[in-house]
Specification:
Elements: E1 3-11, E2 15-24, E3 28-38, H1 44-47, H2 52-71, E4 76-81, H3 83-86, H4 91-102, E5 106-108, H5 111-123, H6 126-132, E6 137-142, E7 147-153, E8 156-163, H7 167-179, H8 184-203, E9 211-214, E10 232-234, H9 235-243, H10 250-257, H11 261-264, H12 267-281, E11 285-287, H13 293-304, H14 314-328, H15 333-349, H16 351-354, H17 358-370, H18 382-392, H19 400-414, H20 420-425, H21 432-450, E12 461-467, E13 470-477, H22 482-499, E14 502-509
Parallel strand pairs: 1-4, 4-5, 6-9, 9-11, 13-14
Antiparallel strand pairs: 1-2, 2-3, 6-7, 7-8, 10-11, 12-13
Helix pairs in contact: 2-4, 5-13, 7-8, 7-12, 8-12, 9-12, 14-17, 15-17, 15-21, 17-19, 17-21, 18-19, 19-21, 21-22
């Protein structure tokens, strides 16, 4: 039985950790080793810089990890950094230093990527996850720098939002005030109140949240350690533990919990955040599975390599999140649906030509979903406003680079395409590979959008036939599509330029 040994590494805000997993097609994945080093990346959220001594500490830890990986016969690894590294002004320099000194390439995850992987770690416990999200459920992922809240209803992701109220960030901001105040929990509550109120007003209308899933292992390793057989705690039990925790100072907590004082100092902000969300949700219980980003990295690796077949459709979650963004900006539902079908028909017919795969197909669908969102702000500058909205909106599961590719395709859907040398001068930041992908998505989006320019969904059927270097688009419609055919001719030249094939438009009259 072929097995693969994989290491997942997380350079977090308050600890650097690694888990080693063994993968096989028969068993999926099992954990072989778990090692953690407490290392608080102090001052990052206030200064945007990492002290050289901390870089030294990270390198020493990673060198230790390398030795362990060799002992376990690790063949592949993925090392990720999260919010603390995202805040660094000199992120590229620090990542390069670490690589030169350790040989480990660190990937800095976007917020959306980080929390999507965290969400996958919960899905790894498939039975409990599937059962729980049938009812209104919220996932709270409390990190050092940020908090991600994801809402589910009937197995569908309704929305996911990031708030900059992570436990370490709160502690850094309130550290001086804490010395002057005996009720640190009240300070934290007041500090986060505005964010919570805004979230409640914008996203909890008519939402009935029964369950809360808490991501991460901070509380399971401290407050709830050793007494959670089913990993579920009722609201009454949580409130009781809350009252017994938040009035203690960090010295007392550290002594009681047998841990470093700096680590214990993160418990109270985390408890206050959870308590306030339990209250605004009026949730009945909290599931604390004790999983972290490391399990998510392992799950993602296993899924991509075919060791794991998930019963949950993660791609659909990304599409639903995008659809909800489009809905927020009042995009036309029927137009989006019709244009999506047209775009995917063109995409699927050209697989031998365009060289794109399932991930690029997903990006095309998202581009279609969001191509009109800028109308919410300005009818006169839709393309630019759409671009700005997409770049300012985190979409769960997408990297910053993927979001920029989508935003660029949407921008050039209705504006003149900017060629590579020019876009580099203008500072758009796409590399050659990303630029080519944006060009391909733009060409397809332009065609599909033009076919429904009137937003009446006149095209009742589209058949795309690729033969040699010619793509025939056979349009089926019983209505007058003079406008659509006229506008399509303007898009043909760019399409042929991008793909290097001849495009032929044919009309099949429907009786």
């Amino acid at each position: 039985m072929a097995v693969t040994t994989f290491a997942a590494i997380d350079i977090g805000s308050y600890e650097t950790s690694m888990k080693i997993f063994e993968f096989s097609k028969k068993k999926g994945f099992t954990e072989l080793n778990d090692v953690r080093y407490s290392l608080e990346l102090r001052g990052v959220y206030s200064s945007g810089k990492l002290e050289s001594a901390m870089v030294d500490d990270i390198c020493e830890i990673l060198i230790d990890f390398q030795k362990m990986m060799k002992e376990f016969g690790v063949t592949e690894y993925r090392a990720c950094a999260t919010s603390a590294f995202r805040e660094l002004k000199n992120q590229i320099m620090i990542v390069e230093q670490i690589f030169q000194r350790t040989g480990i390439r660190v990937e800095v995850l976007s917020n959306a990527e980080q929390h999507f992987l965290g969400y996958k770690s919960i899905a790894a416990i498939e039975t409990g996850f599937k059962k729980m999200i049938q009812k209104g459920t919220a996932i709270l992922d409390v990190g050092g720098g940020s908090l991600q809240v994801s809402l589910f209803d009937k197995d569908a992701l309704v929305t996911t939002q990031s708030l900059k109220i992570g436990s370490l960030r709160i502690r850094e901001r309130l550290k001086e005030l804490e010395k002057q105040n005996t009720h640190f929990d009240q300070l934290v509550e007041e500090f986060i109140r505005n964010d919570l109120t805004a979230f409640q007003r914008l996203y909890l209308k008519d939402r009935d949240i029964k369950n809360v899933i808490l991501m991460g292992d901070l509380l399971t390793d401290t407050i709830f350690r050793g007494d959670l057989e089913d990993h579920i705690i009722t609201r009454e039990e949580f409130n009781s533990r809350y009252e017994n925790t938040v009035y203690k100072n960090e010295e007392t907590l550290a002594e009681e919990l047998g841990m470093d004082q700096e680590y214990a100092a993160l418990v109270i902000p985390t408890m206050v955040i959870c308590k306030n969300f339990m209250d605004i949700f009026n949730a009945e219980s909290m599931w604390v599975p004790g999983v972290s980003l490391l399990e998510g990295l392992a799950y993602d690796f296993g899924e991509k390599r075919g060791y794991i077949k998930s019963v949950h459709n993660f791609e659909n979650d990304i599409l639903v999140a995008s659809r909800n963004i489009a809905k927020r900006y009042s995009s036309g539902k029927n137009h989006i649906h019709g244009t999506t079908n047209l775009a995917l028909t063109i995409f699927d017919s050209m697989k031998k030509v365009h060289g794109m795969g399932s991930r690029e197909r997903l990006l095309l669908q998202i581009a279609v979903q969001l191509h009109d969102c800028g109308k919410y702000i300005s009818l006169g500058d839709v393309a630019e406003c759409s671009y700005r909205i997409i770049m300012a909106t985190e979409i769960i599961g997408l990297s910053t680079e993927e979001r920029q590719i989508i935003a660029s395709a949407v921008r050039y859907n209705t504006t003149e395409f900017v060629y590579y040398a020019e876009q580099k001068r203008e500072g758009f930041g796409l590399n050659k590979e990303q630029y080519l992908l944006a060009a391909k998505l733009t060409a397809i989006l332009r065609l599909a959008n033009a076919m429904d320019r009137s937003h009446y969904q006149k095209v009742e059927g589209l058949r795309a036939v690729l033969k040699d270097r010619e793509l025939q688009l056979i349009i089926d419609s019983s209505r007058d599509i003079s406008l659509e055919l006229g506008l399509l001719k303007d898009k043909v030249k760019f399409f042929e330029e991008v793909f290097g094939i001849r495009l032929v438009l044919r009309r099949k009259r429907k009786m």
